[in-house]
Structures are given as structure tokens and as C-alpha cells.
Specification:
Elements: H1 18-33, H2 43-66, H3 72-97, H4 100-105, H5 107-126, H6 137-151, H7 159-176, H8 188-197, H9 203-221, H10 226-246, H11 253-266, E1 295-297, E2 303-305, H12 306-314, E3 333-334, H13 336-348, H14 359-363, H15 388-407, H16 410-423, H17 428-436, H18 439-446, H19 452-465, H20 469-477, H21 480-490, H22 494-507, H23 511-519, H24 523-533, H25 536-550, H26 553-561, H27 564-572, H28 580-590, H29 594-601, H30 606-616, H31 619-633, H32 638-646, H33 650-660, H34 663-680
Antiparallel strand pairs: 1-2, 1-3
Helix pairs in contact: 1-2, 1-3, 2-6, 3-5, 3-34, 5-6, 7-13, 9-10, 10-13, 15-16, 15-17, 16-19, 18-19, 19-22, 21-22, 21-24, 22-25, 24-25, 25-28, 27-28, 28-31, 30-31, 30-33, 31-34, 33-34
């Protein structure tokens, strides 16, 4: 059921009209209580919540029947309850529409969300003046009992769900185990029974679950949550394999025949072993369509064979071949669960296993599917996770180039720094090998070079090396921070300054470095200078670095004192700069210190700009705009509240986000509407 919810009622009088509010409460209560098919996960929480809302619905209907004006305290309570019930509806819908297996894994987290809503219901009922309402005695007793129940309610975590989750995690651990003894050992009867418990019984059920998991993986991939994406992909692999084991498939018969024919010829197997085997689609690389030897996960959440995706990336592509999504990083995460399942599949069907270390060479002998009409190049090199021979080559190259950095002329140093910059651009192994060759101290020295290209290549090489976490520590330990900050403030090229800002951001990912960098007297002011004078790319690099530093509370004051706030507000109105979201994110952080709040409140245009962003901004921009407005309205922000109420687009924008925004936006919009409601209901400001 998808009913458009009415917006929260918001008027600037002490008493709100009860009719439309009660109608909205009754409508949304009915939408919750008449939901068909309670989700299998969170069954107890959902059914308990529906029972509570049914009781409240009776209260709302009885109040409506009295057709009498209610005191402000009861209106405020009913408004709060409307917000609570709407959040209940959203949470139940999310449980129904999301992946049941992923919800099972997150059962405690989701239960906690229900618990938070129950406590909000309790707070709303605290201010309900039952003695002043004209309702029946039994209704009053039921509401009082409900109030007591929600007041002492604890987080409700179903023990059966926890048991199912543990069984699921055990299966996932078994499938992803890297030990030779436990690899590939999966009890599919147990898996089948587990799937049936969460209502996965037909092929369509399995397909729908896979689609939901893939959607969740893509959603999580946008945040760079590699561990979460890896876990979701493990679930996808498990469901896909279970489907293929439980339900017989007859797809791709010709392709399998060709596949087995090639292997029987290459390994001289007798014809009796060359039977046609159905290889599940999930085991095929989306690029080559061959059985994957070494499956890896890219930033988009999709899985490919390492050789194929490495060739794709090394040819200059920075997007996911399957989804077209831009990759936010180039790391390849091994998909151990899928690799284990492929290992088991090969053992069960007498398919020869290939050592992943030699998969690059062996893959060159396998033809792609006829639909691809191409072969894997025989000399395809995986620069992202090199083979031993390739790593030896990288090591010798790095040692040679470091020697040139130490002993060469300016021209040689410039070329060597450039080569190291390129070599460090791709692959964690390369970054580790270069640092082990001793490149970092020499690159730090070259930051002070009078040659613009040497300086630019050196700072960019250090930026690329810093992507490897251990190198972050080594770079700071080598005393690079002073030189990087100098390049940031007065580098000889704008690109050098921009890459210095990006290096500051990368180094500040480590919490201890946030403190060190923030305490440097020139670091934050130099970032603010680039924020003011840099190119679009430079402004963005500076904003992201400031955001990362401002996560540490002490640095927030430094950002404000350095004059960042007026510049960030100006950037909100600069369409050409194109960093509105980055500027909003930094402002939202510095709002958390008193100096930042005072500086932000000085702006005369910010409120109207934020209201426009509530309408036309990105989802993240809308959330940060709400954070700013909420912070400005609290603690004596009456003037901001008045501006918001007087702006004709203010309340409608908040009401729209409270209904159609993201979960965070809905919560913040609800909180801001309630705050404004209380401002309007102040007895000191009676309405004529």
C-alpha cells in the first residue's frame, strides 16, 4: 500500500485546528494497522507496534467524535504522535521491501530503531492530558496502560531471529573460510531450511532476494563501505548458489559443452569426464563470461575475475563495466565466499582448478564466450595485485628510480619523480614496494625544490603513496608535514597546491594525524586560502580536507578562526564553484562549536539560501541544510525561526522533506517542524 501522507500541520497560532490533524492521525494509523503480510524479520516488533497503534487509533477516533477544541498540550502530543506513527510506517515498509537476509544480519540494529521510536512514543504520551479529554473510562485506562508499557519497554530482540542470524553467519564464514580444511564445506540442506524460514521457497523468491541484495550493495557502495559491500556480496553468492543447487537449471548448455571440451583437451581428460556441466551465471565473469578463477569486488559492489577487471582498469577506464557507475577507488577486494563456492563447484564436477597466482597466464589460453568474439591478451598484466614476477619487476624499477632521486641531476630527478608518481597511482602492492625501496624521504626533500615540475611530481607521488595506510604513518614520520603545508600555501603550481590539499586529506584519515595537522599553525589557514583562491578542483580538495580535520572537535575552532565560514557561505551561492555539498558538510561540522555558531549566525543571507537548498539541493545537501537550520533555531535562535516562518517556501519545503526525504532528512525535518511549532505556541506571543 502506497498512500500519500498529508504534510505535518504547521500554523503560526497558539492552538492548531484539530480536525485535519485527527483525520491525518486516523488515516496514517489505518495505513499501518491494515498493512498486509507482516515481514518475517522483526515480526515481534512489527506486530507489537501495530497493536499499540490500533489502540491509539481508537483514541483518535473517540476524540474526533467529541468534536471539541483541545488544549495546546494535547495538540502538541498528537502532533508528536503523528510524527512517531509516520516513522513506524517507514520502518515497517523498509523491513517489508528490503532484503530479508540482510535485515536478519542487521536484526539488532533494526530492533534498536524500533526501540528508539517506542521511547519517542513514551515521551509524546508524557504530555497527553488524559484527565482533560472527553473520552470513555475504558479508553482512558487502555491508554494509561499503554503509556506504562512503552515507558518501561526494553529493546525487543527476537531470540529466534538471533539464532537464525547465527546460523546464517556460520554458513557465510564456512563459505568464505580460507583454510583448506573448511573451504567449500556447505550443508545445503541446512541452508535450504534456513532460506525457507525467511520465506525463500521458490525460484522467484530467490531471484527477488538477489535483486534486493544487489540494490543494497549498490547503495552501500556509494559510501565506500567495503566490508559491508563484501558481506552483502557474500550473501548474494550464497543465495545464488543455493538457488542453483535447489532448483535445476538448463541454461547455457552450449557454452558449458565448449568449456568442458576445452578443458578436456588441455588436460587430456577422457571423454567420460567431459560431461556437460551447467555453470551458474554467478560464477561467470561479466566481462569474459568465463568461469572466474580469482573473483574480486570493485567499488561498485560487482564481482569480476581479477585478470579481466585489471585489464579493464589498466586500459584507462574508471567505471564499473556492468553498472557504468564511476569507481570511487581502484582497490580490488577478494570475494572469498564466491571463490570458495567456485572451488567446491569445480571439485564436485571434476573441473581442474587453477592456481590463482598463475590465473593471468592460464586465462590467456581460454577463449571467451562466442558473444565476446575476442581473446584475453596473452601478456595482460594485473598492476593492481601483481604476480610474484611482476612484483619483482616493480621492486627493481622502484629501487632504480629511488637511486635516480638520490643522485641524479634536476632533469633526472624530475623524470624519476614523474615515473614514481605514475607507478604509485595504481595498486596497493606498488605503493608498498615503493615505500620499502626508500622513496619517501627523497620525495619529501624534493618538495622544497625550486623546479615547479619536480615539486609537483613529488607531492603527487606522496599523495598516491599515502593511499596505502602504512605509508601515511611513514610520510608523517619522515617530517613531510611542514613541506606539504608549505606547498599547500605557496606551491609553484596550482596543481601542486591542490595535490598537497588532497595529501592533507589522505593523511588526516588517521585520527592521530588529525590532531597533528590541526595543531600545525599554517595547515588550516593554508587550506582556507586555497578554498578562497583555488580552482574548482582546488576548492573541493580544500573543503574535503577541512571537513576531515573538523571531525576532531579542537580543529573546528581553528577552521572558524581562520575565516572559513564566510567563504563557505559564499560558495553556497556560487554555482560555478560546484562544491555546494562540500561547503554544507563543513558548515554543519563547525556549527558544533560556539565560535562556529556565532560566526554562522552573522550571515544575513544564509537562511534564505538554505531554504532554496531544501528544494533544489542534493539528498545529502538537504540533510546538511536541515542540520544547519535546526542548529541555528536552537538555543536562542528566535530570529532564525522567524525568518524561516516568514519565508513562504520555508514550511512547505520542510513538510515535503518530512514526507518524501531520506530517513535522516525526515527525522531532521520533523524535529525542526516540532521546534517551530513550539515557538508558535509560546504563551508570551498570543495571537490576536
Amino acid at each position: 500500500m502506497d498512500v500519500t501522507l498529508p504534510p505535518p500541520i504547521m500554523v503560526s497560532s497558539g492552538l492548531l485546528p484539530t480536525g485535519s490533524l485527527l483525520e491525518s492521525l486516523i488515516q496514517i494509523s489505518n495505513e499501518v494497522t491494515t498493512m498486509d503480510k507482516i515481514p518475517v524479520t522483526q515480526y515481534k516488533n512489527v506486530s507489537t507496534m501495530i497493536r499499540r497503534i490500533k489502540l491509539l487509533s481508537s483514541l483518535f477516533e473517540e476524540i474526533q467524535e467529541t468534536n471539541s477544541q483541545l488544549p495546546p498540550s494535547s495538540i502538541l502530543c498528537l502532533t508528536e504522535l503523528y510524527s512517531v506513527i509516520r516513522r513506524v510506517k517507514s520502518l515497517i515498509q523498509a523491513c517489508k521491501e528490503g532484503s530479508c537476509l540482510w535485515n536478519l544480519v542487521r536484526s539488532e540494529s533494526i530492533s534498536n530503531q524500533f526501540y528508539v521510536i517506542v521511547k519517542e512514543m513514551s515521551k509524546a504520551l508524557d504530555i497527553l492530558p488524559l484527565s482533560l479529554l472527553k473520552i470513555a473510562a475504558d479508553t482512558r485506562e487502555q491508554v494509561e496502560l499503554l503509556h506504562k508499557q512503552v515507558k518501561r519497554a526494553d529493546s525487543l530482540v527476537d531470540s529466534k531471529e538471533i539464532q537464525r542470524r547465527e546460523e546464517l553467519l556460520q554458513v557465510m564464514m564456512s563459505s568464505s573460510s580460507k583454510s583448506s580444511k573448511s573451504k567449500g564445506v556447505i550443508d545445503f540442506e541446512k541452508v535450504k531450511a534456513l532460506m525457507a524460514q525467511v520465506r525463500l521457497k521458490t525460484p522467484i523468491d530467490y531471484e527477488e532476494e538477489i535483486s534486493k541484495l544487489e540494490a543494497e550493495a549498490e547503495k552501500q557502495a556509494g559510501t565506500g563501505g567495503l566490508i559491508v559491500v563484501s558481506n552483502i556480496n557474500n550473501l548474494i553468492s550464497l543465495v545464488s548458489l543455493s538457488k542453483s543447487m535447489v532448483f535445476n537449471k538448463e541454461d547455457h548448455k552450449t557454452a558449458q559443452d565448449d568449456f568442458m571440451h576445452k578443458y578436456s583437451q588441455q588436460h587430456h581428460y577422457p571423454s567420460s569426464q567431459s560431461m556437460v556441466i551447467n555453470i551458474p551465471d554467478e560464477y561467470r565473469c561479466p566481462i569474459s563470461l568465463d568461469l572466474m578463477q580469482d573473483p574480486v569486488i570493485v567499488a561498485s559492489g560487482h564481482t569480476y575475475d581479477r585478470v579481466s577487471i585489471a585489464q579493464w582498469i589498466n586500459s584507462g577506464h574508471h567505471t564499473c563495466p556492468k553498472s557504468g557507475q564511476r569507481l570511487i577507488h581502484m582497490a580490488l577486494i577478494p570475494n572469498y565466499a564466491l571463490k570458495s563456492l567456485i572451488h567446491q563447484f569445480c571439485q564436485e564436477n571434476n573441473i581442474p582448478l587453477t592456481d590463482p597466482a598463475t590465473s593471468s597466464s592460464s586465462s590467456s589460453h581460454l577463449e571467451r564466450s562466442p558473444s565476446m568474439k575476442r581473446k584475453v591478451p596473452e601478456k595482460a598484466v594485473d598492476h593492481i595485485s601483481a604476480t610474484k614476477a611482476a612484483m619483482d619487476t616493480v621492486k627493481k624499477t622502484a629501487e632504480f628510480l629511488v637511486g635516480k632521486l638520490a643522485m641524479g641531476s634536476n632533469d633526472i630527478q624530475r623524470q624519476a619523480a614523474y615515473e614514481l608518481r605514475l607507478l604509485a597511482k595504481t595498486g596497493m602492492d606498488n605503493r608498498r614496494i615503493i615505500s620499502e625501496a626508500g622513496a619517501i624521504p627523497f620525495l619529501v626533500t624534493l618538495l622544497s625544490s625550486n623546479d615547479p615540475r619536480i615539486q609537483e611530481n613529488a607531492v603527487t607521488a606522496l599523495l598516491n603513496l599515502s593511499i596505502f595506510d602504512n605509508n601515511k604513518v611513514l610520510i608523517v614520520a619522515a617530517g613531510a608535514l611542514d613541506s606539504i603545508v608549505d606547498v599547500l600555501g605557496s606551491g609553484k603550481t596550482m596543481e601542486a597546491r591542490e595535490n598537497a590539499a588532497a595529501a592533507i586529506f589522505s593523511l588526516s584519515i588517521i585520527d592521530d594525524h588529525k590532531v597533528i595537522i590541526g595543531s600545525h599553525p599554517k595547515a588550516v589557514p593554508s587550506l582556507v586560502g586555497l578554498l578562497r583562491d583555488g580552482t574548482t578542483a582546488g576548492k573541493r580538495d580544500a573543503a574535503t580536507a577541512l571537513f576531515n580535520l573538523a571531525v576532531y572537535s579542537v580543529n573546528k575552532v581553528n577552521v572558524v578562526v581562520s575565516g572559513a565560514v564566510p567563504i563557505l557561505i559564499d560558495l553556497l551561492m556560487d554555482d560555478k564553484a560546484g562544491i555546494t555539498d562540500d561547503a554544507l558538510a563543513v558548515l554543519s561540522l563547525v556549527l558544533g562549536c560556539s565560535e562556529g555558531l556565532q560566526e554562522i549566525r552573522k550571515s544575513k543571507v544564509l537562511v534564505s539560501v538554505l531554504i532554496d537548498l531544501l528544494r533544489f539541493g542534493s539528498p545529502k545537501g538537504k540533510e546538511n541544510s536541515l542540520t544547519l537550520l535546526l542548529g541555528l533555531c536552537k538555543d536562542g535562535g528566535d530570529e532564525v525561526a522567524r525568518k524561516l516562518l516568514m519565508n513562504p517556501r520555508g514550511i512547505p519545503s520542510l513538510q515535503s522533506l518530512a514526507v518524501d526525504g531520506s530517513m535522516k532528512a525526515q527525522r531532521k525535518a520533523d524535529a525542526l517542524l516540532r521546534l517551530l511549532n513550539r515557538c508558535c505556541s509560546q504563551p508570551s506571543k498570543p495571537v490576536e
